[in-house]
Amino acid sequence: MSGAGPASPPTGDRRRDSPAAGSPIQPIIKDVGEIYSRLLDHRPVIQGEIRYFVKEFEEKRGLRELRVLENLKNTILEANERVLPKCEQAMQGNLSETFKRLQAANVMIHRLQEREYEARKLQADKVMAREEKCIAHCEEFMKEQQNKRAEIDEEHRKAMEHLKEQYSEMEKELAKYVSF
Questions:
Q1: CB 32 within 8 A of CB 9
Q2: In the structure, what pLDDT confidence band is assigned to residue 43 with cuts at 50, 70 and 90?
Q3: CA 180 to CA 173: how far, in whole Å?
Q4: Rounded CA gap, 25 and 87, in Å?
Q5: Is residue 5 within 8 Å of 29, Cβ to Cβ?
Q6: What are phi and psi of 98, to 5 degrees?
Q7: How many CB atoms lie within 10 A of CB 171?
Q8: Cα(136)–Cα(142) distance, rounded to whole angstroms?
Q9: 43 neighbors 1 (Cβ within 8 angstroms)
Q10: SS3 sequence of 30-93
Q11: pLDDT > 90: what percent of the chain?
Q12: Residue 30: exposed, middle, or buried by beta-carbon count in 10 A (0-12, 13-18, 19+)?
């Protein structure tokens, strides 16, 4: 099945091929080969169709990609010329308002922090005053206890002396009665 030349029917017998070389059958074989090529060998036609299809595909693809790129270019230009300035204006307007709000919030937070600091300081001062008062009260109590202890010790000492004297007098009196 080659399209290069006339195709001779494939036969396995050499005797038939050789006598036909110079005979009147030669044109018939040539015509049969041409008919065979035209009817059954479609390679040249298919190759032409393939080349045509590829050419059409590349042209259409190129045009489609060109249209996509053109649309993309138009979209970018529109964004740069219309959308971007509108966004910048809106951003500038909102940004200044937002900045003012942030400053006001910052001032309010600073005030709250100062109040909280003052409240904590006042609370700490109260706690310190209570602690100092408690320490002073404790020291006073301890002094009172020491004074009372000293008084009780003194009373106890005096009572002991008194009892010693009383017992010693009782012993003397007893000694008088025992000597009888």
A1: yes
A2: confident
A3: 12
A4: 89
A5: no
A6: -65, -40
A7: 11
A8: 10
A9: no
A10: HHHHHHHHHHHCCHHHHHHHHHHHHHHHHHHHHHHHHHHHHHHHHHHHHHHHHHHHHHHHHHHH
A11: 39
A12: middle
Q: Which residue has the higher pLDDT, 56 or 21?
A: 56
How many CA atoms lie less than 13 Å away from 176 in the CB half-sphere? 5
Other beta carbons within 10 angstroms of residue 147's beta carbon come to 10
Alpha carbon distances (Å) from 81 to 18, 63, 135: 85, 27, 79
Q: Taking 80 as the threshold, does the pLDDT of residue 1 lie above it?
A: no
- CA dist 87 and 79 (Å) reads 10
User: Which residue in this structure is represented by tokens 């009665």?
Assistant: 177
Tokens describing residue 164 = 């010693």
Q: Which residues of 160-170 are buried (b: 16+ CB within 10 A; e: fewer)?
A: eeeeeeeeeee
CA 109 → CA 82, 116, 118, 122, distances in Å?
Answer: 40, 10, 14, 20
- pLDDT at residue 90 is higher than 80: yes
